[in-house]
Specification:
Radius of gyration: 36 Å
Mean pLDDT: 85
Low-confidence stretches: 5-16, 18-23
Structural class: alpha+beta
Number of strands: 16
Order of helices and strands: HEEHEHEEEEEHEHEEEEEEE
Strand order of the largest sheet: 5-8-13-10-11-12
Shape: elongated
Strand content: 25-35%
Oligomer: single chain
Number of domains: 2
Distance between the termini: 85 Å
C-alpha cells in the first residue's frame, strides 16, 4: 500500500516537472517544429508572430490616421470659396419672447416669441418685406467671412441720442446674434460696409444693400441723426423713428464648408462645419 502511493507521487512529479520544463522551453531555441520542409524554433515562430501583430497594429493606426486626414480634404475653408452676396446657412437661433414695435429711444422690438432670428420683420407699414431671410456674405477679410442679415430681424427706435444708439446697436448685435460655435463677434452694419457694396451713397438695385425697407447704420451724422439706408438703397440720415436693424456677424477663420446645400429656409446656401 505504501509503495503504491510512493509510485503515484513519483509519476506526478515527473509529469509536473515535464510540463514546467516544456513551458519554459517554449521561449528557447531548443524546441522546434517542422512544417513541410521548414523547421523553425518555437521562439522564432512566436517572435515572428509578435512582429506581424505589431505591423498589423501599425498599419491599422496609419489607416485610421489617413481616414482622419481624408476628412479634411472633403471640406473647404469657407473664406476660400464664397463670394459677396452668397447665402450661408448660419443660424442665430429663435426669439425667447415677444416684443412690440419700439416707440422710445434705445429700444428694440417688432419680433415674436419662438420665431427665427434669421427671418425678417416689418418695422414701418408699407416698407420692407418678410421674404428676405437668412444670412449673406458681405465681405471676406483676412480669411474671415462677414455675414449680414438678408433683411432685418428686428426694429430699433432712435430718437435724438446718437451716442446712446451707436453703443446699443453694437451691443445688441454682439449679445443677440453670436451663436458661440461659428461666430467670433457681431456688430451693427456700418456706413463703410453699406457704402462699399456699390462704391457710392446713391440709389441702387443691388439687393445686398437695398431691402425695400429703411434701416439704421452704425454711424452718426451728428448728435441727433444716424445714417440710414432708405427703401431705394440710398444712404441718407434719419432720427426720431423705428427703423430696421441689420446685424453683421464675423465668422471664425477656422470655419469650413461641405459645399452648397440648403439653409433652414430651404434656399441654396453654403453649409457650415
Amino acid at each position: 500500500m505504501g509503495g503504491g502511493y510512493l509510485l503515484i507521487i513519483l509519476v506526478l512529479l515527473v509529469i509536473t516537472n515535464g510540463i514546467t520544463y516544456g513551458a519554459s522551453q517554449l521561449t528557447s531555441d531548443g524546441v522546434s517544429y517542422t512544417r513541410g520542409s521548414n523547421t523553425m524554433s518555437v521562439k522564432q515562430a512566436l517572435d515572428d508572430l509578435m512582429s506581424k501583430s505589431s505591423k498589423v497594429d501599425d498599419l491599422e493606426k496609419k489607416a485610421n490616421e489617413l481616414e482622419e486626414k481624408s476628412k479634411v480634404y472633403k471640406y473647404a475653408k469657407l473664406a476660400d470659396v464664397v463670394k459677396q452676396g452668397d447665402y450661408v446657412a448660419y443660424n442665430a437661433g429663435t426669439w425667447d419672447s415677444s416684443v412690440k414695435l419700439p416707440t422710445t429711444q434705445g429700444n428694440f422690438g417688432g419680433y415674436t416669441a419662438s420665431t427665427s432670428k434669421n427671418a425678417s420683420v416689418v418695422c414701418e407699414s408699407g416698407w420692407g418685406s418678410t421674404n428676405l431671410k437668412g444670412w449673406r456674405v458681405l465681405k471676406v477679410v483676412s480669411n474671415q467671412v462677414y455675414l449680414v442679415h438678408a433683411g432685418q430681424p428686428e426694429c430699433y427706435y432712435h430718437g435724438i441720442n446718437s451716442s446712446d444708439s451707436l453703443t446699443k446697436l453694437d451691443l445688441r448685435a454682439q449679445n443677440t446674434y453670436v451663436d458661440g460655435k461659428y461666430a467670433e463677434s457681431a456688430h451693427a452694419m456700418t456706413y463703410q460696409e453699406a457704402f462699399d457694396i456699390t462704391g457710392s451713397e446713391n440709389t441702387t438695385t443691388k439687393d445686398l444693400r437695398k431691402t425695400d425697407a429703411r434701416y439704421w447704420l452704425a454711424a452718426a451724422v451728428n448728435s441727433t441723426d444716424l445714417r440710414t439706408v432708405d427703401p431705394s438703397g440710398n444712404i441718407s440720415k434719419s432720427g426720431g423713428y423705428a427703423h430696421g436693424f441689420r446685424p453683421v456677424v464675423v465668422l471664425k477663420s477656422t470655419v469650413f464648408t461641405t459645399g452648397q446645400g440648403q439653409d433652414q429656409f430651404s434656399q441654396p446656401a453654403w453649409i457650415l462645419v
